[in-house]
Amino acid sequence: MGSAARTVNLPLHGGKTYTPLCRHAQHFFSHSAAFTKYISKCRLFPYGLRNRARFLSRQRTAIPPWHLTVGRLFCWESPYCLRQYGLWSPCFAFAQYGLLVALFRFRSIRAPSTAMCSGRGPCAHTPPPPTPDPAPTGRGTDPLPLSRIAFQSPATAGFVKGFNSTVSTLLYGDIMKILLDFDGTLTNIEQEYEFECRYIMSELKREFGLDEETINALFDVAKAHVADNACEHGWCDNDRISAYCDEDLFMTVASTMTLLDKWLAAADERADVLRKHGVAGATPMMDLTQRAHAAINAEPLSAFNTPEPVVVKAIHELLERDCEVVVVSNSPAERIIDKFEFVGLKPVDHLDNPSARFRIRGHAKKFCLGDNPLPVEFGSRCVDIDRPYYADILRKERPQVVVGDVFSLDLALPIEMARREPMVYEDMQMYLRTRSYTPQWAIDCALNPPADAPVTVRLLNHFTDLPMLIHKR
């Protein structure tokens, strides 16, 4: 039959096509969707591999041919693996692939056509339409129990599961990598903010003899001016705004104190009360703010300056699910590690062990702006994303999930990186940790994204929801 000798072009991403060279390749492709779906559901395989298979099986375009499917599942991070583990990584990849092929054969999936591949010439068999998923048999039930894939011995099943977990750790440790901010995301900074305000009040009373009523009246005027002109005030670096004053309680205080310093330097009448009481210097109010921060950091560890109990519970759950948790913060790593150890968690410093599953990257310098401004509009604000230090961390880590409470510092840059490099960051998930002080414009960016938004920012109102949300792929 002449029609049986034709070659079928298979769709790839980007509108390109691939022509299989033999019937074996196309026969395998005809079942690659089922193969990928099977991997995504069988709990024998490590979570990282199942999550990647689940992502591939839910793409709107057709599953790529067999060599791309295998490559995406088993060699997604091959440059990273070669850099980390040298020539051992191909050995692990082939071992993992061999195990999966063996399990796939035990599954006994056969072609719907009676004509089997002979290896000669192209195959006329076209991929069948996808079949609906079988009805669920209960929560946590595998679609194919171990006993049905020839693993009758518990010792054998345990060995294979352990081998898979080891290979997954070596090859796919960053498949589900979660980047978390620390202050405000994992801790509740409202109590620290109150401590800072009390410290500033007491120091102004002690050093300059100002009474509480005068201080409150001055601060009310300055805060109102900052709030009315929020687009002009914030955390500045390199003579540009790095984060806006309304995104964080500490930034509100810093912006207010910076404004008071400007009024003092400009001999503004609104700061006359400070000058009359002997407040002088280049930046006396910001110097006082820095002393307040130092006093906060010197406070003994307690429930008010360490991760919240719900955060501890969620991180335990993420680690149990084979996720890699990386805390990226502007604070020193030693300080963050001490706070985690206070609540029973044991992270390590990234500098000591870059491959640890729970580690801290301190001194991230998310706020540091480069010399080439790159303003990008997010809703009603314009955020500068020229952040070379943070960009370097994102490129090295390549996370699948980013969580932060300050939109400008934590989320703006990864969102734009997903727009500019969709092939690299196409599956990145963004979560804005909402607090009582979260500005409305940041919430609107999540609720009303533009039509061409590369990724969707979701609101994380309760941190305990994070393990459930990131698994909905």
Q: Enumerate how many helices there are, as a single number.
A: 19
Give the overall shape, derived from the CA principal axes: globular
Evaluate the radius of gyration.
28 Å
What is the helix content? 40-55%
Overall mean pLDDT: 75
Q: In terms of per-residue confidence, which ranges show pLDDT below 50 for 5 or more consecutive residues?
A: 1-31, 59-69, 71-89, 104-174
Largest sheet: 7 strands, parallel
Work out the number of β strands.
Answer: 13
* Arrangement of strands in the largest sheet: 7-8-6-3-11-12-13
Beta-strand level of the residues, as a percent range? 5-15%
- What distance lies between the first and last C-alpha atoms, to the nearest angstrom? 44 Å
Structural category is alpha/beta
What does this structure look like?
This protein has 473 residues and is an alpha/beta fold. It contains 19 helices and 13 strands. Strand 1 and strand 2 form a beta hairpin. The radius of gyration is 28 Å and the shape is globular. The two termini are 44 Å apart.
